[in-house]
Structures are given as structure tokens and as C-alpha cells.
Predict the structure.
Amino acid sequence: MSKKRIAILGSTGTIGINTLKVCQHLANDLEVVGLAVHGNIDLLLDQIKQFHPKIVSVMREDRKQELTHKLQESKLNIMGIYSGIEGLVKVATHPEIDTVVVATVGAIGLLPTLEAIRAGKQIALANKEVLVMAGELVMKQAKEKKVPILPIDSEHNAIFQCLMSGTPKEVKKLLLTGSGGPFRNHKDSFESITPDQALKHPTWNMGKKITIDSATLMNKGLEVIECTHLFDVSPEHIEVVIHPQSIIHSMVEFIDGSIIAQLGVTDMYLPIQFALTYPDRKPTPLPRLNLHNIPQLTFEHPDHKRFPCLGFGYKAIRIGGTLPTVLNASNEIAVQAFLDETISFSCLPKIIEKTMQCHQTIFHPTLNEILQADQWARDTAKVIIADES
Ligand SMILES: NC(=O)c1ccc[n+]([C@@H]2O[C@H](COP(=O)([O-])OP(=O)(O)OC[C@H]3O[C@@H](n4cnc5c(N)ncnc54)[C@H](OP(=O)(O)O)[C@@H]3O)[C@@H](O)[C@H]2O)c1
């Protein structure tokens, strides 16, 4: 059988690096054809030497020039080196690519994902913000083009696997698990929490943005929205369950009362590999989950009062239209402001809530209206931050 030809947008990030480990392990099944990054050309150069892609893209033009120079010095030949958003789209739509792994972070993933779908590529999606900001549009286009969107996010990948046990009309609800983040048991005020503290996730090792989202529980809010689009369920049929051990990656309850769960080690390698080998399963080099070493599996309700961002996610998708776009964009701005130490941890939800309150929702938005709402929310959130600080 011929190899599945892969492009990875965001190959130097946590998900991107893990995806390349899968490609290395399954070298007889997967071929890396395209790689795209923002500016980390040193790691990209190592990846080029190891995987010999045909096309690469570096968002920053200055970094692309540096890379071109380094490739010449190393006498490495690549058919195409691009930059900017055009570069991301070129990689995502290259004719020799079957599957695009979207592992960029934030809104930047939207246009290349839409273009990849338009070009008929299978999508393996980690970049959840794409579905949060434009889920209706992305899923509609995927349906029209008969392109599968395979979830890499561990919870959605778990639900995808659990759903194989029944038909859509047999599903009662989705049980979306989450660790609760580093501040689940934080007794003091959230005001003095530093970026360093918030970047220490108890169970997962991830990029900075998603780690902060996990600390505020905004990540779960974004995932609720992602779920509604991926699995075509209303938010009322999604229950968030805090499960601090992160062993159960999510569950599905069926109409007869059966709950099917997916368990595994806390390593993104597993959902990435499943998304790339689906519908087949292949052995992984991961350590096995040893149930005898897990003294307990516990479950709690999320604390909406201390973590209001989860509720913002539910509110945004219940109202719909451009409100989830605004939630996403204002969150991206607020997270960056917190990492830059411009706002406090407890200020983060306030920025998002105020931006959402100022927005006039447009229902069934076009791509242009989504992009305008995204820009509006970024500008508005920055003004609110300036007023707060
Ligand atoms: N990490 C996880 O365990 C995990 C789990 C589930 C879902 N996700 C989702 O997967 C996505 C990626 O997360 P991550 O943790 O892997 O993030 P990350 O470690 O921060 O990596 C982001 C990747 O995207 C690239 N990138 C960033 N901005 C870009 C831009 N403007 N243009 C082109 N490339 C850009 C980065 O390139 P440079 O290295 O050059 O900056 C890097 O390769 C996020 O949406 C996250 O929510 C992650």
C-alpha cells in the first residue's frame, strides 16, 4: 500500500514534534512532505535533515531568508520554501499531500485549514481555535468536500473512539474530562498567580497558550465548542467532568445507560497516531497503562465560580454566530497580556467577558464577517486591557 503523505503546520510545537515521532515510528506508512513553522528555523532545519520534506514554510520572512541561507550552506535541496500566510496555504494545499496535521496555535490555522479542505485534503486537527472561531463554516465546507476532520485533541479523539460503539441517535451525552489544571485546589486569591506558576500543568506537557487556557479552564470551554462542531451535538448534551488523574480521556453515555470510556497514558502520541492511522490501529512504542499502578480514578464537578471561562465557552456556543470567534480572539489577547505580565491572572476572564458583552453577534457569518469579528475582538480586548492596567 502507498504511504500516506503528510503536511504538518506547526511542526516545531509540542503537537508537531510528537507528530514527527509518529511519522518516524510509522516510516513505512507515513511520509512527511510538508512542514510549516513560525520562526524556529534551527529545529526546522533538524527536521528537514531527518525527514526531507519537499516543501517548507516559515511565517517570518526574515527567518525564511536565514533558513534558505542555512540550507545552501548544508547543501540541502528543497523544492519550495515559502513564508507568510501564503506559505502556510501552499504547504496545506500541496498536490502531493493527503493529510494536513493542523498543529499551529490560535486563529492563524483557519485559512490554511479551509484551503486544505477546499483542496480535498484530510484534516487531522489539533488547532482547536479553528473550530471555535469558525466551526459552522469549516464543518459545512468539510461536509461538502467529503473531507474528514479527525480530532487530535485527546478528549475529542477519545470521544471519537467511544462513538464507534453506537449510532448517533443512541448517544445520550458526551462526558468531556479535564484535569482541572494547576489551580484546582488553589485556596488563595488568583490575583498573585504568576505566569511561571500557571505554566506548570499537573499532568500534560504542552505549548504555552494551551497551558494557560488549561489553568483558567478556558481550554475546556474551547473544547465544549469544538465538540459541538465535531460531533454535531448541542452544548446541553456535553458535560464537563473534572478528573485530576487524566487517565480517562473522555467518555460517551448511551441511551441505555452504558458509559464507554477511553483510557490511556497521558501522552499526545496516542491520539495523534490514531488520527493518522484511522480507521486502522497500529502498535505504538508508548509504555502501557498499568491499572495496578493507579490507586484511584476520581471525578468532580467543575467550579464555575472560580473558573468562569468554562461558562463563557458554554454561553458563546449557546448564542452562536460570531460570539465564539470573539471569545477566542479576546482570550488569545488576554493570554498573551498575562504572559507579558501586563494583566493579572484574575483579570484574564474579565477581559474576555467585557469583550463578549460589547459584541453585536452576527448569526451564520461569512468568512469575511468572522475575520472582521476576530479583528474587532482583538482591538476591543486591547483597549479594555489598556483601561484595566
Ligand atoms: N500540546 C498539547 O498537548 C495539545 C493538546 C491538545 C490540543 N492542542 C492544540 O494544538 C495546537 C498546538 O498546540 P502546541 O501545544 O503544540 O503549541 P506550541 O507548542 O506553542 O506550538 C505551536 C506551533 O505553531 C507554530 N506557529 C505559531 N504561530 C504561528 C504562525 N503565526 N504561523 C505559523 N506557525 C505558527 C509554532 O512555530 P515556532 O515554533 O516557529 O514558533 C509551533 O510550531 C493548539 O491549538 C492547542 O490548543 C495541543
Notes: The chain has three domains: 4-151, 154-303, 320-389. The radius of gyration is 20 Å.
